Request: fold
Amino acid sequence: MKPKTPPERIEAPPKAPKENLPPPPPRLDRPLLSHLMSAKGPVSTVHFLVHPGMVELQREAQARGWNERGFTTLSVAWLELRWTADGWTTTHILSSNDVPCPVVNGTFHLQNCPAGTNVEFAIRVGLQCHAPHDTAFARDVGELWLNNDGKNFTQVTR
Reply:
């Protein structure tokens, strides 16, 4: 077999016509991003870790018949925190689907809420299930409220 020889002349690709494009947007580096987030007012946190092992979530799976069908592996698909600091005159909603995500490892970041504020809240949980050996996708989905048996939860923000 004869070795291939490179072509003697390689032609450059044709040049694209020049267009009047706007300059690229500035890069959002960490200092600028944190400045934009803090411009919305004070941020405080409440902590409430929702996980598949919670009794309430296990009870919901049992009530939906998931365990009997072999769908014993649960996961939390999304969270929504509804909170108030004024007796529900004003309701605030945080979702784990918001960007940037205001929920990290059970810590909910509340915008425009100074630390030391007493807040009342309930959490809506998106729940999904599948069999332990079948991780392709959720076999069934549901949702439930965690609300301290109708009394809601209270915490002082940090």
Summary: The mean pLDDT is 83.
